[in-house]
Task: inverse folding
């Protein structure tokens, strides 16, 4: 028969073994879900009212989405952007105010949770006047190309309408000219008839009537 002290020692050993196994499993689970903060967070395509933020993640991490915190400097209001089921590593920021400083943080998202936020990135949107001044005279944006195409299309429509109107005027003139030309013989006949009726009548025997002197 085992002694009470030895039984207690065996029970303590079993409890310690089970606790170590559970702790190991918890560590493995934690290591599977723990994400690193995004790296190399960069602002690109900076405009007066928009920008694009890009970042990188460590290879092999089970990232399924991202979350971005956007804040005006010295203002407590935040904008939170989150997207899941995506592998993209960039996001467009919109409705920004010109000549304003912003601070952003990026977090990766996995099935187990979110990563720590990235290092804060500070950037300032340019003024409209500065953007126009920095624009090269030879630089053409897609918006300007679209506007030029619309102008060309409008000019072509106007030209076509003018040509159609001129063609209608010419056709109408030709038709009126043909009508006038067809009526000219009839007018000549009427004039000749009227002139013969107005001439001096002849004597029935062929001589002219004369008065006796």
Result:
């Amino acid at each position: 028969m085992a002694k009470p002290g030895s039984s207690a020692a065996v029970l303590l050993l079993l409890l310690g073994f089970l606790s170590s196994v559970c702790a190991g499993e918890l560590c493995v689970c934690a290591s599977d879900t723990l994400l690193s903060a995004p790296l190399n967070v960069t602002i690109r395509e900076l405009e007066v009212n928009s920008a694009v933020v890009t970042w990188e993640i460590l290879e092999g991490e089970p990232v399924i989405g991202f979350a971005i915190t956007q804040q005006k400097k010295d203002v407590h209001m935040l904008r939170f952007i989150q997207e899941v089921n995506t592998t993209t590593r960039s996001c467009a920021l919109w409705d920004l105010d010109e000549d304003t400083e912003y601070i952003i943080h990026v977090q990766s998202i996995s099935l187990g949770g979110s990563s720590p936020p990235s290092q804060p990135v500070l950037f300032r949107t340019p003024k409209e006047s500065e953007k126009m001044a920095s624009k090269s005279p030879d630089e053409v944006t897609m918006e300007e190309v679209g506007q030029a195409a619309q102008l060309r299309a409008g000019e072509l429509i106007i030209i076509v309408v003018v040509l159609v109107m001129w063609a209608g005027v010419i056709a109408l003139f030709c038709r009126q000219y043909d009508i006038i030309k067809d009526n000219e013989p009839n007018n000549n006949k009427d004039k000749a008839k009227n002139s013969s009726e107005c001439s001096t009548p002849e004597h029935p025997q062929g001589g002219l009537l004369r008065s006796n002197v």
Notes: The longest strand covers residues 101-110.
